[in-house]
Fold each of these.
Amino acid sequence: MHIVVCIKQVPDSREIRIDPKTNTLIRQGVPAIVNYYDLHGLEEALRIKDEFGARVTVITMGPPSAEKALCQCVSMGADEGVLVSDRAFAGADTLATSYVLALTIQKAEDTWGPVDMIFCGKQTLDGDTGQVGPGIACRLDMDQLTYVELFESLDIEKQEVVVRRHLEDGVERVRARLPVLITALDILNRPRRASLPGVLRAARYKPIVWTTNDFSNLDRSKIGLKGSPTIVSKTWVPEPKQVNTEYVDSANVVAAATDLLNRLYATELPQKLGWS
Amino acid sequence: MIGLQPEGDVDWSMYRGIMVVVEQRSGVAKPVSWQLLGEARRLADKLDAPLMALVMGQDVSHIAQQAIGYGADIVYHADAPELKDYRTRPYSRVCLKVIKTYRPEIVLMGATYTGRDLAGAIATHLPTGLTADSTQLDVDDERLLLASRPAFSEKMLATILCKQFKPQMATVRAGVFQALPYDEKRTGKIIAVHQDMHENDIVTKVLEFVQDDNRVNLEDAQVIVAGGRGLGGPDGFKLLHELANVLGGTVAASRAATDLGWIDHAYQVGQTGTTVRPKLYFAIGISGAVQHVVGMQNSDYIVAINKDPNAPIFQIANYGIVGDLFEIVPLLTKAFQERLTPVMAR
Ligand SMILES: Cc1cc2nc3c(=O)[nH]c(=O)nc-3n(C[C@H](O)[C@H](O)[C@@H](O)COP(=O)(O)OP(=O)(O)OC[C@H]3O[C@@H](n4cnc5c(N)ncnc54)[C@H](O)[C@@H]3O)c2cc1C
Ligand SMILES: Cc1cc2nc3c(=O)[nH]c(=O)nc-3n(C[C@H](O)[C@H](O)[C@H](O)COP(=O)(O)OP(=O)(O)OC[C@H]3O[C@@H](n4cnc5c(N)ncnc54)[C@H](O)[C@@H]3O)c2cc1C
């Protein structure tokens, strides 16, 4: 078994604030973390490793500082961490990202053997598109199981997995054959803490670094900003809604309830909501 | 497969019109599909181009017909047993075939689990740019799609373009746009599309689908009755449930209430919960902390009920009642019940 886990180091966007004077993001002091959902992908890979034995390779495309994120994964039990890093990769959208990650997975196969499973997170905290997982699966011509909430079973003999996919209106049980790409929800599992031997190993661990020069078949027109068809043309902070709050007099609560109801009825709400 | 290239001619001027991929389950279309047709109709008229819909499934000819009633000019309709359940491979294969044959300049899908799964595969295959989770759409004089999406936990909006390839693709959030009123008399063309995968060649099998009627679905809710720490405990939510039931709405909560364990985390609205945009949002016993407000400020109408006249929630509320929620909410429920029930019973 060879499992690849894709992780991304992201700013903890929950902590990002907007400077009210300049309307720009305040990135200072925002901690960089391993994208939350990716840790759930890693945990599932490690559980498979615990039960069936597997090599777990963690890969990330990012700046040199993302080494730290890989070390965190090694401390949890990953065997190897690969950082794909090069200025030429910068500014990638999901299309360019899935291109580089697919090449990386191919190279990981050449190095450590065929890949049976790939785990990605449901989406990232920053780009938040959820498009990279399907992009990788497409490029590797692999089946994909997205939004997995439960990893039901793995049958090594038959090379089959059964998972539960989470959908808006219910849960779908799906069977697929290896190799397969899975994107993880946070309800999939609870990521483990680093073990003591893991921490010791991670402290000395140097992730493998691949740059553009390490890929013989890399097409430079498909990477980085140049290889990214989507262009962010502008960003803005939406104006806070200007509202003139109408206050309902609540001295008499019964009258207040009727008053509010009448005011709501005077809007387009009854038409839109089918009240009559 | 790894580095995909656009096939054949790259004369992008051949690409015309907007295509909406309609999502359905068990023969019932998802509302987001009709909402998308509504908005896409506006864009198609602006571009003076046809509006197309793609309907895939088994026994879904009625949905193809509905797509016309909701605004499509041309519907591509693929009907086959292999398309009964959504699976990435057969669905993306049909989609790719239709896109390559009929060349829409814009392709839109709902930003649902299925829509994101499918769009991600197709955009990579074509290849083209794909904007995720848009909440605003427009087109400019150069026929570019301006797809805007929230970024950084809803704190900013970003407008994203794709100049290099066609079609320009975007997934779009449910509940943002409005469907056109259904017009039975509208006419359009339905074109059958052949699905050519054999079941034996589709490795992935859907074993079962378990519908969950209790699934918290705040994103699609039209009316949300949200409560916070002011409810004083789990029992307070009973009052909200009663009001929500009368209005056909859904209950939701602030993080204070979910953190206290009064209600499940799945009901949390806000920065670290769900972002909602219902037609009507009640904030009851919620102070209006910024982390809560970012998740609900785009509701069409906001009603705040709070005993503190200085609570920040009033700054964004259209209607405010300063008072005790335990007195007001039951009376409001009763008032609505009296007004609405005879109609519902009809
Ligand atoms: C505000 C903003 C909006 C954007 N909007 C778009 C858009 O609409 N369309 C678009 O194509 N791009 C967009 N981008 C660019 C895009 O987000 C990223 O730059 C791209 O590299 C990764 O996409 P993601 O973060 O959305 O990942 P997702 O697709 O959400 O990530 C899913 C999973 O893929 C894996 N993964 C993602 N990135 C990496 C990585 N670098 N290394 C290893 N594994 C990874 C992880 O397992 C992750 O959980 C946007 C960026 C920003 C900042
Ligand atoms: C990183 C981060 C992320 C966060 N994410 C979220 C998020 O996603 N969602 C979220 O909601 N919060 C979030 N928070 C928490 C947020 O800051 C607030 O603490 C929270 O929203 C407060 O909830 P509340 O309004 O219910 O409680 P409170 O602020 O305590 O307000 C209770 C209100 O009830 C009123 N009240 C009390 N009794 C009555 C009565 N009998 N009748 C009428 N009114 C009454 C009070 O006047 C008061 O205004 C986050 C915080 C952080 C730091």
Amino acid sequence: MKLKLAFGMAALAAAFVMAMPAARADALSDIKAAGKIRVATAMGVPLFAYVDAQLQPAGSDVETAKMIADSLGVKLELVQITNAARVPTIQAHKADILVANLAITPERKKAVDFTIPYATLDIIVAGPKDVAIKDYKDLTGKRIGVTRATVNDMMVSENAKDAEIVRFEDDATLITAVASGQVDLVSTQTAVLAAMNEKKGGDPLDVKFVQKSLDLGIALPQNEPKLKEWLNNWITEKFKSGELPAMFKKFHKRDLPADLLSRKD
Amino acid sequence: MMYTFDFSSLWAYWPEFLAGALTTLEMTFAATVLGLCIGVAGAIARGSRHAWLRVVAGGYVELVRNTPFLIQIFFLFFGLASVGVRMPVLAAAVLAMVINVGAYTTEIVRAGIEAVHPGQIEAAESLGLSVPQVYWYVILRPALERVYPALTSQFVLMMLSSSITSQISAEELTAVANNIQSITFRSLETYIVVALLYLVLTVLLKSGFWLLGQGLFPRRRRLGTPL
């Protein structure tokens, strides 16, 4: 009986060891050797990553992922995740890189590595026309909807401690919450707001104030200098050639800032 | 692959964990009490002499047991809000849990009721017991005693599935864990802590039900035999 248990434990331990990724040279060589790159995107984010009328993934993040795979000459495997799963996905090596409108923040830098900015977005507080809100102070005692684990969530939690913060799991659910009238004040980004107003029909929400202009980076696991260097070069090249800004404008109807590459988070 | 566990960064968040666990317990308590009432009423209705009552109760049970809990929650919170019926999130969450667990409880209690021998009911009627008396002493109490273990495990299951209500922004234990995970990025540690907390809640709930059972079913307590 004891022997059986010992065997069982050994087998279990062996299974754990086998489940761990084998020792690797570096992520970039691994991707090339495998002939495919696993790119995580947060689906359900208007303009960045969403499902189009033909039920195919579309948006500037999805397009960026396709361009990266093309340049590497490998197959693209999209890993579709939620906003809250973005950092854990990279930490757990569920994807090679993450192109999921993830803002570069000092907190996140402790957990994952970032490239130079590849895009930007403004995060804002929006509400109905007749509600007067100019600052975080005005949110006291009010219900405000956010998407969990976003910079919006962090900033509102930090600056509007007396607001009632209502957290939803992804942008799509937040949009549904606004469209169905469950919340009328939101902290979100401009692209999501556009989608909300479209779904809402009448009485569009107005931008009350801009919380922050964010630089978005491609996230990758820490200690992968070769992959990071390749991605940084890729962003610089595609930005200068105009391919990246043109693609971004196609979805967002606005230009990427000219100083994007020199922005130091 | 090395992983260094760091539970210390979670320590600062214990009041949040506790508040989340309390919310989960409160939701479970409300849903258990109301769900049991619906279950007993539903079970009686399913065995009713009136066909329309049987149809209504049967339809309710089939509808709820054959659709996903998440869809039921979204329907109550987002669907109804679109047509102007707005509920606070906790009310919607508890209502969804009550409706859900009520359907399962209906079937469990019905099994208990059907296990009561018709001869006992006939005997009670011939002794001149009134209809409510027959239902209370001869049908419901033995029925509930028989299915008590199944009932309690259904309520424990419901407490665990209440984690789904985090999707509509109910700040229960799972939502709190997701918040803390997104601040600390210690996802493995956070989910280990939250799993242990659910385990503690389950043990608490089971002990509570055991104590309640000792009080409710004196026959079983004294004799220690199943009906």
